[in-house]
């Protein structure tokens, strides 16, 4: 366990950071978040004369990257085997589309469950579907009753 005191630079506050090298832990949180040694871990390693390179994952080391290129790549085939080029494919970004005025259209895709059969309307006084207020033979004229 090592402690490091940071001298304020460029508006940074003074801070004390605890570093636990065996557990790969630092108070700043960068070491845990990025899985790369932060400046506090490097300072703690130099304080105890320990090589900080052992805390860097192998994936980020130059030797590992160079091993990728050690493998032989297959040669590129004759142009006759290449797929035909049909020009540039343009995929539009729907977020860049101009917003239209008015009520937005529904994006719901209707299915058989959404459609219902229409029931013919019935006139509310005689409850016959073909009759209306104007053309109902059973309707009582309010003016003739007076």
UniProtKB/TrEMBL annotation:
GO terms for molecular function: zinc ion binding. Keywords: Metal-binding, Zinc, Zinc-finger. This is Uncharacterized protein LOC101515388. Residues 17-49 form the SWIM-type domain. The keyword Metal-binding applies. SMART domains: ZnF_PMZ. InterPro entries: Znf_PMZ, Znf_SWIM. It comes from Cicer arietinum (Chickpea). Pfam families: SWIM (PF04434).
């Amino acid at each position: 366990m090592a402690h490091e005191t940071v001298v304020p630079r460029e508006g940074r506050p003074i801070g004390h950071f605890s570093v636990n090298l065996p557990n790969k832990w630092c108070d700043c949180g960068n070491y845990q978040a990025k899985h790369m040694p932060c400046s506090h871990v490097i300072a703690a390693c130099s304080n105890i004369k320990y090589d900080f390179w052992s805390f860097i994952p192998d994936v980020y080391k130059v030797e590992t990257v160079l091993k990728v290129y050690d493998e032989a790549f297959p040669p590129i085939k004759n142009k006759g085997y290449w797929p035909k080029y049909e020009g540039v494919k343009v995929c539009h970004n729907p977020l860049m589309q101009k917003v239209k005025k008015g009520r937005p259209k529904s994006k719901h895709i209707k299915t058989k469950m959404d459609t219902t059969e229409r029931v013919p309307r019935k006139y509310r006084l005689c409850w016959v579907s073909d009759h209306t207020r104007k053309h109902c033979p059973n309707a009582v004229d309010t003016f003739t009753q007076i």
